[in-house]
Design brief:
The longest helix has 25 residues, at 87-111. 63% of the residues lie in helices and 0% in strands. It has helices at 7-13, 25-31, 33-36, 38-45, 51-60, 65-82, 87-111. With 125 residues, the protein is mostly helical.
C-alpha cells in the first residue's frame, strides 16, 4: 500500500517548478457559487435535458444531478428485476442517466475559468 503523505511532506517532496493543486467541487462552489451550485448548473443545463430527464428532476424535487442519475440507475436495476421484458424502459433510464452525466460534465467544464489567473488571489482565501 502506498503511504498517504501529509500536505507538508508532499510539499517537501515536490519540485517547486511543477507544483499543481487539483481543487474539487467544494472549492468551486465556495469560490463561484453563482456558477457551481446545483441550481446554477441545472439552470444552464435544463435546455439540453430530455423531457423524461426533466420529469425526473421534477419528480424528485431536486436540481442535484448526482441524485437524479443515481435514481435513474436504481430505477433501471429495478425495471430489470421486476419487468425484465420491459427492455425499452430500462434502456431509456440508462440513456437519460448517461446523458445527464455528459451534460453535467460539459456544463461544469464550460463554467471553469480558462486560466488560473482569472481567479483573484482573494478568492483563494
Amino acid at each position: 500500500m502506498i503511504p498517504i503523505l501529509s500536505f507538508e511532506d508532499a510539499l517537501a517532496h515536490s519540485d517547486k517548478q511543477s507544483r499543481h493543486l487539483l481543487l474539487g467541487n467544494g472549492f468551486s462552489q465556495a469560490c463561484r457559487n453563482d456558477l457551481f451550485a446545483y441550481n446554477a448548473l441545472f439552470e444552464k443545463a435544463k435546455e439540453q435535458l430530455s423531457p423524461s430527464a426533466m420529469g425526473a428532476f421534477e419528480a424528485l424535487g431536486t436540481t442535484d444531478f448526482e441524485r437524479v442519475m443515481r435514481a435513474l440507475n436504481q430505477a433501471e436495476a429495478l425495471v430489470n428485476t421486476y419487468a425484465p421484458d420491459n427492455n425499452d424502459l430500462a434502456l431509456r433510464l440508462s440513456a437519460d442517466a448517461e446523458s445527464l452525466r455528459v451534460i453535467l460534465a460539459n456544463v461544469i467544464a464550460s463554467n471553469h475559468p480558462t486560466r488560473m489567473s482569472d481567479i483573484d488571489d482573494e478568492q483563494f482565501i
